[in-house]
Amino acid sequence: MNIPFIDLKKQYARVEKQVRKNIDAVFEHGAYIMGPEIPALEKELADFCGTKHALGCASGTDALTLALMTLDVKPGDAILTTPFTFFATAETVALLGATPVFVDIDPVTFNIDPEKLDKTIEALKGADNGCVLPKVDGLTVKGIISVDIFGLPADYDAIRAIADKHGLFLIEDAAQSFGGEYKGKKACSLGDITCTSFFPAKPLGCYGDGGMCFTDNDNYIELLRSHRIHGMGPDRYDNVRLGITGRLDSIQAAALQAKFEIFPEEIDLRDNVAATYAELLSGIPGLTPPSIPEGYRSVWAQYCPLASDAKHRERIQAALGEKKIASPIYYPIPLHLQTAFKGLGYKTGDFPVSEDSASRIFAIPMHPYLEREQQEYIADIIRNA
Fold first, then answer.
1. How is 101-114 classified by DSSP, letter by letter?
2. N or C terminus: fewer CB in 10 A for the chain?
C-alpha cells in the first residue's frame, strides 16, 4: 500500500485551479518581490490569528532572525529555549552573537517545562539551585523563545507569567503550530512577536520557502519592516540600521492565499486523523500515542508516538520501512548535544527528558487526506512489530 508521509499531490488537486489563477496574476502584474499579494496575505493571516500586525518574510528562520533583531538581541544576551526543537530556533540566537540557554521539556507535551524555565532564569541570576547552565560568563538574561512542538502550543499562561516576573521578552516559535489554539487564543498570537514557517511540509505551506511574524506592537512592526529589507528607512536608499534580505516573494504569497482557502477545513481533517490514530494505537504494549491537554488544539504538524525504548523504536521503524512507510525521527539529537553548540559545554545527561524523548520518539504519516484504511494498515504493522 502506497502511503505518502505528507500528501501534497492530493492537496494540490484541490487547489490547483486557484493556485494557477493566483500565480498567473503575479505574472500579469510583474511585481515578483513585495507585490500586492504580500500585504493582502499579511492582513488575512493576522485577522485569522487575531493579531494587529503580520509581516511576510522569506522563511521561518528569517522570521526568528527578524524578531530577535527587532528585540535588540546582541552578544552577551542569554535567550532561554528548548533543546528539543529544530536547529533554527537556537541557531538564530547564536548568529546574532547571543547565547542560547537550554531548558528541559515536559514529558507529555514535549514543550518547554515552565517550572524548569523559572529555575533556570533564577540560576542565571545567581541562584545555586542545581540548574545546568552554559559555560559562558557574564550573560544578561534577555528573553525566552518558546517552541510549539509538533503543532501543539506551549503553556503560555505559565510562560508569560515567568517572562513578566523577570522582565523578559517572549517570542513564540510557531513554525509548526499555525492554526493551533491555546485556551481560546490562536497560535501566533501568544508572544510579543510570533514567528511561523510556510515550508512546504508545514500545515500551511507554500511551494518553496516562506515565513511570517505576528505582533500587536506598533513599534515592533515598523522595526520588523525595516529589518526585513536591509534596515531601510523612509528613504529606500538611506538604511538606518542593519537588516537582512528577508522578503517573501509574490508567487509564494499567491500560492498561500489559495491554500489558505481550504486551511480551516484541513485543520478539522487533521483532528480526525489524529483521533483515529489515538483509537487504533492505544492499547499497543509499550507504545504511547501523543495526547493533548484540555483547552489546547494541536494542528498536528507531525504525529509522534513514543516507543518503550530505542530497540522497540528500531523494530517498529524496520517493520514500517519494509512496507515503504516513512517514520522519521523528530528530533534525534537534542540541540545541546549538537556539534555547533559544543562550545556551550553541555553534555549527555544535562536534559534527561529531552534525551529520553529523542531516543524513543518517531513520526508516522500525518496529513489531512490520510484514509482510515491506511491508518489501520500502519497500526497493524506497529502492533505486529
1. EE--B-TTT-SB-H
2. N
- Each residue of 194-217: pLDDT tens digit? 999 999 999 999 999 999 999 999
State the CATH number of the domain containing residue 303: 3.90.1150.10
Q: Which H or E run contains 297? A: strand 296-297
> CA-to-CA distance for 316 and 300, rounded, in angstroms?
21
Last-in-domain residue among 206, 232, 260: 260
Residue-by-residue DSSP string for 5-74: SS-HHHHHHHHHHHHHHHHHHHHHH---BS-THHHHHHHHHHHHHT-SEEEEES-HHHHHHHHHHHTT--
- The values of phi and psi at residue 167, to 5°, are 70, 40
CA 284-301-351 angle, 5° bins: 75
Residues 6+ apart with CB under 8 A from 167: none
Q: Are 318 and 250 contained in the same domain? A: no
DSSP letters for 131-169:
----S-SS-EEEEEEEE-GGG----HHHHHHHHHHHT-E
The residue whose grid cell reads 507529555 is: 108
At 375, the pLDDT band (50, 70, 90 cuts) reads: very high
> 18 and 34 share a domain?
yes
What is the extent of the structural domain holding 294?
Answer: 263-327+362-384
C-alpha cell at 360: 524513543
Amino acid at 380: D
Q: Do 27 and 83 reside in the same domain of the chain?
A: yes
Range 14-34 average pLDDT: 97
> Based on the domain organization, do 252 and 181 belong to the same domain?
yes
